[in-house]
Design brief:
about 260 residues; alpha+beta; Fructose-1,6-Bisphosphatase, Chain A, domain 1; D-Maltodextrin-Binding Protein, domain 2; 2 domains; 8-stranded mixed beta sheet
Length: about 260
């Protein structure tokens, strides 16, 4: 088991605490599904409450660090080199529909580089985490990307555009090229878990456009520390800055990259 740093311990504690709060709310959502009003307003409150828990924990432990979170925007820290990047509920639509696949995502950035990440799935009691140079872990287990080297045996994950988003044609072209040559494509609804699942060898690769920095930051370091390779889909872009990613294990990387990039 890796020796975790004080910072990572703070992140894990915050993620678990937020996870407990969300679990209580999730049980309530399942009851709200049948109501006329629906669960939407309630889930927004659950999301904001989870972010407040994480913010209080992290900023109490490290008051000088900066912060960027999905719900509460950005805070400049007195230490300009360090920043927390937080998504309190990645997979909100799943949560809203009572689907048990969502996560809490917390990353720490130092001088523009993500140096630690935690992705917590309270439903399955799986905590994925990594620190730069120390490998990636899920609970007590060391993570490695899959060893598959044939596209026809590989399963990929993506997020499909919804509600008329402009990247729908690109995603359909991607699928048109990829589906005939692989073992399947999954859309799980949580990018943080998709990246963690590639790290764990459950998925062989993942790609998606138009993500936010808090969707990607923690999962990206977990993926890389498990031996995964990652690039922006468009060579001229930046993964975290532009919110797009394609990643996989090493044997499939060039072929997967070519399939998606040719679809652009």
């Amino acid at each position: 088991m890796m020796q975790t740093s004080a910072n990572l311990n703070v992140m894990v504690k915050a993620a678990r605490k937020a996870g407990r709060s969300l679990m209580k709310d999730f049980q309530e959502v399942e009851n709200l599904q049948v109501s006329v009003k629906g669960a939407g307003d309630f889930v927004t409150k659950a999301d904001i409450a989870a972010e407040k828990i994480i913010k209080d924990e992290l900023l109490q432990a490290r008051p000088t660090y900066g912060w960027i979170g999905e719900e509460s925007g950005e805070i400049e820290g007195t230490d300009p080199t360090r920043r927390w990047i937080v998504d309190p509920l990645d997979g909100t639509t799943n949560f809203l529909h009572g689907l048990p696949h969502w996560s809490v995502s917390i990353a720490l950035e130092h001088k523009g580089q993500v140096v630690a990440g935690v992705v917590h799935d309270p439903i399955k009691n799986e905590l994925f985490f990594a620190e730069k140079g120390s490998g990636a872990w899920m609970n007590e287990t060391r993570l490695r990307v899959s060893g598959r080297n044939r596209m026809i045996e590989a399963v990929f994950a993506t997020g499909l555009p919804f509600a008329g988003r402009a990247d729908l044609p690109a995603s359909l072209r991607d699928l048109g090229r990829l589906l005939p040559v692989c073992a399947g494509v999954r859309q799980s609804g949580s990018a943080a878990l998709d990246l963690s699942y590639v790290a764990a060898g459950r998925f062989d690769g993942f790609w998606e456009r138009r993500l936010n920095v808090w969707d990607l930051a923690a999962g990206l370091i977990i993926l890389r520390e498990a031996g995964g390779l990652a690039s922006p889909i468009d060579k001229s872009c930046d993964i975290l800055g532009d919110g797009e990613i394609i990643c996989s294990n090493e044997p499939l990387y060039e072929t997967f990259l070519a399939a998606i990039r040719n679809a652009m």
